[in-house]
Specification:
The complex is a heterodimer of chains A (372) and B (518). Chain A is an alpha/beta fold. Chain A has helices at 21-41, 64-72, 130-134, 153-157, 178-194, 200-203, 206-215, 219-222, 240-254, 341-352, 360-369, and strands at 8-16, 47-49, 54-60, 81-87, 95-102, 112-122, 144-147, 165-168, 196-199, 228-235, 257-258, 262-264, 267-277, 280-288, 297-304, 309-315, 318-324, 330-336. With 518 residues, chain B is an alpha/beta fold. Classes of the chains: A alpha/beta (372), B alpha/beta (518).
Chain lengths: 372, 518
């Protein structure tokens, strides 16, 4: 079974070798017409084509199976039509296949959504004309998100004109060094100048940002934001950019000026920086958590000049919150929330393509200052 | 006399001014202890507990969240937790995550007691104080009255008497389930009792229809699309039909249903709210008070019928034996627990008019019933016919004025019924549908209405709750009908189970208007 053909419905599939975009589009239309006719004839149907979002995926053919598996994990957040451009440099011929898939776990009486996946196998000779291959295959008038999970930035960038959103993961693009982080964030910035960017590295920090915002929401705590003196973030060894984005978020929301980061004497597992704010200097530390096995953050700790401290730790069933009050009294509680897993984060990335978060770009800009 | 003035300004959501909340979808919620009276009942089991689990799953509950179940039956905390777990596993829209579920259940306690027993409230106060101490802060408190309506006033009185209704430095809120009274007099009396203990800003009267995404979407549909507003008035709209049809019977709810009936169960609350959403003027801003002010204006513009007008504008009926889903089903009077001489209506239809500049002369038809042909809740706006149809009627099929159909359940969406030419050499036309299906156009699964509403209570946002003057205005419209029917002897007209409803329903339609098929 080829990649990108999950949960195929009956005969509703098509494939061809040596084909053209026009022929693929005609086959797709024909499949949908046949499917609609079958639906009308069926007394227990209830499948309708989803019409929310196009997704164009550019992927080297060697990663097609892995990418397909990742997309299988997004649950209900599949794009309505996914156009996968599977790239194999030596390929001369354009081959294609189409699969229609439906949710298997819909509730009784609920409409089932039909989603279309079109896989087009392309070679180096097609790279100059990628737009003319992908354009006829996306649904008109729906927003389009572009995802190129394994690089090939220049090839994928020719597809930007078809998209309104780029899905990236700064983690994917990062070599573990300041140059790598600088390059990942620079790429995100360049893309942000052209279209809306959804960065999975940013989404990994969403529950942390929500809980930090909530912890400082009561008015007595809010004033502590003005006297923060130290922020420590520990993270997966590949998630330095996610940690920088979290610090960048704090900086942009609280009007801090971030200074350049440097490795400490502890070695390359600890990055230190400082921020200046109206309330004074803030020490910043980003530490690698070698024991953390999944991408993302492990701990966020904020201390204020008054002596109060708030620490959030990753834990089962949610984040664990430790508070130290002014009098030194310590308390713990669990902030309930189910882990989304990497599949859930990718699904969230697809969903976010339809929303607009005004805080990512300022956080990104602020975080870049740490590597200036 | 109406209760306290309604214009009290609701407390603003508490997070304004927090620089960290920009861009976040889930806004902070203050630490809260939620007390559910009637915690072992059907609503709690099927809706409230699963809603709380799903909020926990999404990471939406606050740092300190505690749930206290209060009910008459004696049981331990552990027994109650086990019941909560079973309810969540049975009715949650998502498969529970064990860690989250365990974490949520850890926060649960149970208090046994009679609702009129001051001792129960003293015990409850003790549990609440323990939670405060454990958290090292004063938690907000929300009391959810999910009991039979006769206990609402009793519980409110006891909350006041025990000093639990007000507290410095924290918010205390009360959530009152429907039905809010069974008549105008009862609703006023209940409002009087509630407002003698709580301020209106503390009171959240639930009509769970308002928490449904599709109902909220009606406002977006009307006020964010320039296409419809120019047509949305008496010049272009012929009439409006609002239907809430169910294909099921009363099931095991005979005791409740026979004392309520279709008018009280659905029309007085849900369907009048839907009417308000169709007919209201655009609010200046989407704040609780502005939205609710506009809805109240609509209700005040509906003239209640006099007793002798009732027969012309309202119809009631009972289902008789028939067929549903391919099975023989009994009539209402044969249902278990229903008195043989019951005159409770299982079907009600009304014709109302909104006497204002926009709607004068446009009839609004509301109908609700059980054991009808199928389950559907929809609003149908029928436009006036074109002044002259130039096309040949010969061979044209079922040409009728345009209809806009807002389907709330199942298959939420909007259908615009247009007329188009049938392909061929002749100019023959027939109706076609332009269809938008809500589920096909969004990735997210709609949360259950109760998830949204419980969050709104904890955040102090009353927009989707019914205000005191609103509920009284609803009763002002329905009360004369209830009273007239109460004095009209039975038996009621019948309609066969599984049918379109009683033939008598057509008698309230104005000339040239027909019920849309269910």
């Amino acid at each position: 079974m080829s990649a990108f053909a999950q949960a195929t419905i009956g005969e509703a599939a098509w494939s061809a070798e040596g084909t053209t975009p026009d022929a693929i589009e005609a086959a797709l239309r024909d499949l949908l017409v046949r499917r609609a006719r079958d639906e009308r004839a069926s007394s227990h149907g209830g499948l309708v084509p989803a019409r929310v979002l196009n997704m164009i995926v550019f992927v080297p053919s060697g990663f097609a199976v892995e990418t397909s598996r990742r997309l299988d994990g997004v649950g209900r957040y599949h794009a309505s039509r996914t156009v996968v451009l599977s790239y194999e440099p030596e390929r001369e011929r354009l081959d294609a296949r189409i699969a229609l898939a439906a949710e298997e776990d819909r509730a009784e009486g609920e409409l089932g959504l039909l989603r279309e996946t079109v896989v087009v196998e392309i070679g180096k000779r097609h790279l100059d004309d990628l737009v003319t291959i992908a354009d006829p295959l996306v649904l008109s008038d729906l927003p389009t998100v572009l995802w190129s999970p394994h690089g090939h930035t220049s090839a994928a960038s020719s597809l930007l004109e078809l998209a309104q959103t780029a899905l990236i993961d700064s983690l994917d693009e990062t070599e573990r060094s300041p140059n790598g982080w600088r390059s990942a964030m620079g790429h995100a910035c360049t893309l942000s100048d052209r279209l809306y960017v959804v960065d999975l590295a940013w989404l990994r920090s969403t529950p942390w940002r929500e809980r930090v915002a909530a912890t400082f929401d009561p008015r007595p705590m809010r004033s502590e934001l003005e006297s923060l003196s130290r922020v420590t973030v520990t993270h997966h060894r590949d998630s330095t950019v996610a940690a920088m984005l979290l610090v960048g978020w704090l900086a942009s929301r609280l009007s801090w000026d971030l200074g350049g980061a440097r490795f400490t004497e502890a070695g390359e597992d600890v990055l230190a920086a400082a921020a200046s704010a109206a309330g004074g200097e803030i020490d910043l530390q980003l530490r690698t958590a070698p024991e953390l096995e999944v991408p993302g953050l492990q701990t966020v700790e904020l201390s204020s000049g008054s002596g109060q401290r708030v620490r959030l730790d990753r834990g089962p069933g949610g984040l664990r919150l430790h508070r130290r009050a002014l009098d030194g009294h310590e308390r713990e509680s669990t902030l309930l929330g189910a882990s989304r897993g990497e599949g859930g984060i990718l699904g969230e990335g697809i969903r976010q393509a339809l929303l607009r978060d005004p805080t990512y770009r300022p956080a990104l800009n602020a975080a870049r200052a740490m590597l200036a | 006399m109406a209760s306290a003035p309604a214009a009290a300004v609701a407390s603003a959501p508490e997070s304004s001014g927090n620089p960290l909340i920009a861009g976040l979808e889930r806004l902070p919620v203050a630490p809260t202890a939620l007390v559910i009276f009637g915690a072992t009942g059907d609503l709690a089991r099927r809706k409230l507990l699963p809603a709380l689990y799903n909020l926990a799953h999404d990471g939406a509950l606050p740092e300190h969240f505690h749930l206290i179940g209060v009910s008459r039956r004696d049981k331990s905390h552990e027994e109650f937790r086990a019941e909560c777990e079973q309810a969540i596993r049975s009715f949650s829209r998502r498969r529970p995550d064990q860690d989250v579920l365990s974490g949520l259940l850890d926060s649960v306690k149970y208090v046994a007691g009679l609702f009129d027993d001051p001792q129960a409230y003293a015990q409850l106060a003790g549990v609440l104080d323990d939670f405060d101490e454990q958290a090292g802060m004063r938690l907000n408190r929300a009391f959810y009255l999910s009991t039979a309506p006769e206990f609402f006033g009793v519980i409110i009185g006891q909350l006041g008497g025990s000093g639990l209704s007000r507290r410095s430095e924290t918010e205390v809120r009360v959530i009152i389930e429907k039905p809010f009274g069974t008549s105008l007099e009862e609703a006023r009396e209940l409002n009087r009792r509630v407002l003698s203990v709580f301020d209106e800003t503390q009171v959240f009267r639930i009509d769970h229809y308002l928490g449904k995404e599709t109902v909220q979407n009606m406002l977006a549909f009307r006020f964010a699309n320039g296409l419809f507003e120019p047509l949305w008035n008496r010049n272009y709209i012929d009439h409006v039909q609002i239907t809430a049809a169910e294909d099921i019977g009363i099931g095991s709810r005979a005791a409740f249903y026979d004392s309520a009936g279709a008018l009280r169960d659905l029309i007085q609350n849900h369907m009048l709210q839907l009417l308000c959403h169709v007919a209201m003027e655009p609010p200046g801003s989407f704040t609780a008070e502005e939205v609710r002010n506009e809805k109240v204006k609509v209700l005040h513009a509906i003239t209640p019928p006099t007793p002798h007008q009732v027969a012309e504008m309202a119809v009631r009926a009972q289902y008789t034996a028939g067929h549903s889903g391919g099975e023989d089903v009994p009539g209402y009077l044969q249902e278990q627990g229903v008195p043989a001489d019951s005159t409770t209506e299982t079907y009600a239809a009304l014709r109302l008019e909104v006497d204002n500049w926009r709607w004068a002369g446009v009839p609004f038809y509301l109908r609700a019933g059980k054991r009808l042909a199928r389950k559907v809740t929809e609003i149908v706006v029928t436009l006036k016919p074109v002044p002259h149809l130039a096309f040949s009627q010969d061979g044209s099929l079922g040409v009728q004025p345009n209809q806009l159909i807002l389907a709330l359940q199942p298959n939420e969406g909007v259908t615009l019924q247009l007329v188009a030419k049938i392909p061929g050499t002749r100019m023959i036309i027939r109706p076609v549908n332009m269809e938008f299906l809500y589920g096909t156009s969004f990735l997210s699964q709609s949360p259950e209405a109760y998830e949204r509403l419980i969050m709104d209570v904890m955040r102090g946002d009353p927009t989707l709750f019914t205000r005191n003057d609103e509920v009284e205005a609803q009763w002002t419209i329905c009360d004369p009908i209830v009273a007239t029917w109460a004095h009209t002897p039975g038996p009621l007209p019948g309609y066969e189970a599984g049918s379109q409803g009683p033939a008598e329903a057509s008698e309230i339609l104005l000339e040239g208007q027909v019920w849309r098929a269910i």
